[in-house]
Design the sequence.
């Protein structure tokens, strides 16, 4: 049975969201034991199903790594420490991204040989139901070629084990498909992967085509990956607002909405980041899942599910092995 | 009267698109003289309105700078040479982006003091009718802090003169709003602009908020800017396809479409890149407008209009002056 430690206090929507998330998770999974960290009074509804470790301090959203380390009684730090002490299989938090990523990296440590951890998130693609694994979406500012190559390998192992893709197609996110395109680091990473004949490595892809469903794994340095993630989110928000306006235009468009609602609900589902459960920190010696800060119960339950799946598939061990195999770079 | 030299052969849609573009342009503007470069036979419909310089070779879309320089009889190179010989005010082409940008930079030369030219495109924002000026969207691979600062200044001058904004709000596109966020080059550019107290400089903006209507000018190195541009285009394509599917779902959604069509046409208009007329190369000693390769007549006419407006406002001279004023970096 896998054990997941859960920081219950980190969501912008309070414990009602995380409690709901745990309940939804249990309604779908009974193969995991959850250890909840948070205010015992507030978490009382779950006290019969889970062990509760008391902690009431909340890490502020803007907290950095050092702030978290100082907040010794915060639910986030207590959760990380519990994860280590109990040798749990995974940790989940919806709290401050920067704080959580830095603190888990510092405390759980990187997998030996991994130079940098990468933040990974699934993205929707033009092919219904197909997700693309994108990393690094922002754990780093700058990355060396070796780090980018490690991201490619870690992303591929994740996609293979979690999405059951035999040989995931890996692309480097660049400003042109030709191998001479991209930043110097990206060009060198391209050459390393090419010389390694790394399984599934397909070359470069431009941002416009990245989500057309062809790529399984999209690899980038942390800065460009963050621009790609947040730029995409920005356009989604922009278009959603325009769609709302389009339907609110007059009585005909309002009736039009009522008639086509079902179609748009489908669309919303396929773009719904909430079913993605948040982002995963790959490269750390443990399963680390960062749920969205604005998680609701549904979204939080999927973050727990991703953590559970990764623990079950033992992705961390697979990465340890995968980075060694033919790792002649 | 301003003179614009037009490469008529560069569009993927052939001369019918560029001829239509010229005609539409003339229907809105009569303050410009156009010199057309292309096949005189095909351009015959315009022979009474414009001077035609014969040239039939077309630069292939994948051509680089050196290829263009070798294609001495190509409409693109003949147009560039004509622009120089006739001391024309602007040049417009829908041909190979890489080839056109490099060849115009080489032949027209950079404005003295400008280190690198930047490719600039207007983006739609959440505020109806408001455009954001984004640069560099891909003329460069890597940029120094000084270059990024120059991009900020050039973008601001453009937005001020072409969109009539008193003091355009300038933001650096980064992975966090704090000034310590971003690549080393971006952080240094931030400090330079801050110390200069450059008018309108507001700090960093994240990609998610970049198009919320707050920023007038969004500044980035060429690599990240290209990811931002093409990532945005990719999501637009993805969502447009999903909207089509949503409406095609069944007979009700189809009726829904008919009823709400007007609203969606509005939305299409506000997102229609065709009214933006293409991208502008800022920093070159001349007005250089790159129309979309897939321009139709409507889109091409707007590329001509942007070139005309920039020539009328004498943006190049303003950049020359603007880069000197208080240019203590």
Sequence:
């Amino acid at each position: 049975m896998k054990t997941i430690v859960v920081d219950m206090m980190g969501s912008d929507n309070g414990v009602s969201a995380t409690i709901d998330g745990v309940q939804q998770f249990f309604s779908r999974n009974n193969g995991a034991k959850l250890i909840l960290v948070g205010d015992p009074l507030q978490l009382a509804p779950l006290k019969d199903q889970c062990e509760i470790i008391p902690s009431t301090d909340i890490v502020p959203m803007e907290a950095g790594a050092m702030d978290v380390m100082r907040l010794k009684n915060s639910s986030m730090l207590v959760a990380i420490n519990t994860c280590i002490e109990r040798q749990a299989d995974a940790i989940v938090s919806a709290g401050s991204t920067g704080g959580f990523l830095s603190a888990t990296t510092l405390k759980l440590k990187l997998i030996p040989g991994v130079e940098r951890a990468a933040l990974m998130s699934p993205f929707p693609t033009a092919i219904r139901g197909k997700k693309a694994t994108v990393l690094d979406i922002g754990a780093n500012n700058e990355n060396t070629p070796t780090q980018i190559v490690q991201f490619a390998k870690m992303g591929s192992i994740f996609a293979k084990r979690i999405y059951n893709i035999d040989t995931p197609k890996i692309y480097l996110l660049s400003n042109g498909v030709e191998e001479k395109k991209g930043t110097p680091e990206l060009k060198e990473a391209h050459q390393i992967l090419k010389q390694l004949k790394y399984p599934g490595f397909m070359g470069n892809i431009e941002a416009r085509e990245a989500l057309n469903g062809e790529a399984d794994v999209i690899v980038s340095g942390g800065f460009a990956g963050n621009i790609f993630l947040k730029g995409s989110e920005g356009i989604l928000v922009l278009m959603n607002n325009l769609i709302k306006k389009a339907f609110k235009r007059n009585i005909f468009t309002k009736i039009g909405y009522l008639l086509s609602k079902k179609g748009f609900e489908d669309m919303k589902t396929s773009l719904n980041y909430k079913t993605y459960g948040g982002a995963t920190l790959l490269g750390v010696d443990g399963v680390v899942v960062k749920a969205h800060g604005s998680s609701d119960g549904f979204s939080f339950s999927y973050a727990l599910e991703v953590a559970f799946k990764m623990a079950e598939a033992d992705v961390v061990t697979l990465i340890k092995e995968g980075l060694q195999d033919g790792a002649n770079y």
